[in-house]
Amino acid sequence: MQSELFHTEEYNTDKLTIDELFKRSRKYRGSKEFVRFFDFIAGFHHYSRFNTMLVYLQNRAVTFFGGTHFWKKKFKRTVKEEARPYVILQPFGPVMLVYDIFQTEGKESPQEFLENGLGIKPLEVLGKIKPKTLDGAIQIAQNFGIKISIKPLSFFNAGYITTIFKKGPPEIALKEGMTYEQNLRVLIHELGHLFLGHTGHPLLRQTTKEGKIKVIKLINRKLNTITQELEAETISFLICKKLGLETKAAEYLARYIRSEKDLEEFSYELVIKTADKIEETFLKK
Asked: How far is residue 274's CA from residue 234's CA, in Å, rounded to a whole number?
């Protein structure tokens, strides 16, 4: 039985598009760019896993880190005078200080250093939108009682949404310094999590044009993290594609899809319905 927001013909078309996206993402796992990505990560093996954990406990936004001697000898980079140090255990000694790449200076900016080392731009979005497209979507989200904030985040973290475990209404954080297109892609992704029932929030309180409060009930679904990311990124992919934006969706999904079993809980119908609803509600022309 079909609802007014769901039509078989559109579903079949979108299902083929989603299948193609998954197919591309699985192929990407073996591509040169993906291999270079992990080769670069693997290159930072000069500290133990325990020390890496210690740094991330001190600041989860840390990207890549090293001591003063490490940065100078290996990459000819110097640590800024006002740099924030992180404490790790030193072999045959008490402790030593390390610094994130963004606390260093060199011939390349930290962003250029990471992008050149990775061989890809993980948050890149090709295409253009009008600024009012993002601004309007943010305003509508705020009318739903969703808090929108702009924060400095790590190189790989483009944004996030809070879950029910954080008291209060849901908050979507967008990354400081990103383009309108990049932030719109993240906003759609996080709205996908919310309306797909991934965050645990039971309801939203929408403020109408008349100033009245309308309660919007949300579904609640218990899924594994892999399925949640697959569903949310697919919604972002479908909507961005319609807006003429090319994202790194295939590469993003490649981090999660390991086998066909990862798609068992994926709901094609709910994803397409939710994509339609988000597009109609937050991207009004």
From this structure: 11
pLDDT tens sequence across 182-191: 999 999 999 9
Which residues make Cβ contacts (< 8 Å) with residue 53, sequence separation at least 6?
Answer: none
Q: How many CB atoms lie within 10 A of CB 285?
A: 4
With contact defined as beta carbons under 8 Å apart, do 67 and 97 qualify?
A: yes
Taking 70 as the pLDDT cut, the residues of the chain under it are 1-16, 27-46, 49, 60-61, 117-122, 285
- Helix residue spans in the chain (DSSP H): 8-28, 32-42, 49-58, 68-75, 110-118, 131-143, 180-195, 225-242, 249-254, 268-282
List 192's β-bridge partners, or say none: none
Neighbour tally for 87: CB within 10 Å:
14
> Which parts of 144-224 fold into alpha helices (H)?
180-195
pTM above 0.85, yes or no: no
